[in-house]
Amino acid sequence: MICEIIDRCYEQFGLLIDPDQIYRPEGLKALGWTLEDVEDELGLPRGWTDIAGKWPNKFDLRLQHLARNIPRSQIKPLLRKYLKRELSYPSEPFAAKGH
User: Fold this and answer.
1) Angle at CA of residue 54, ends 52 and 60, nearest 5°
2) Are 83 and 5 in contact, with CB atoms under 8 Å apart?
């Protein structure tokens, strides 16, 4: 029963409590955040990851590198185990496509 309650909280309030939902392109867009906002949250200077060069998927690469410094939720493997089902929200850290 407790796992069901926690699962519902992650579904309803994920963008407020869950780093795996917040620090994804969809999460940042929903919150109206930029990569500079993420850098600021991590205590880095704004624009810290904006290195020179024109790469494809520059946004994804910057977010992937920033996400390495963000603590992840450790409860999701337990929820999957005890609820015996897949979760309806992201449970893996953001990774840039093709990297």
Assistant:
1) 95
2) no
User: Residue 24, class by beta-carbon neighbours within 10 Å (0-12 exposed, 13-18 middle, 19+ buried)?
Assistant: buried
Cβ–Cβ under 8 Å, residues 28 and 38: yes
At 81 the three-state DSSP class reads: helix
Only one residue has tokens 């991590």, namely 42
Distance of CA 65 to the CA centre of its chain: 12
Convert the pLDDT of each residue in 38-80 to its tens digit.
999 999 999 998 877 766 778 888 998 898 888 887 888 889 8
Task: Tell me the residue type at 99.
Answer: H
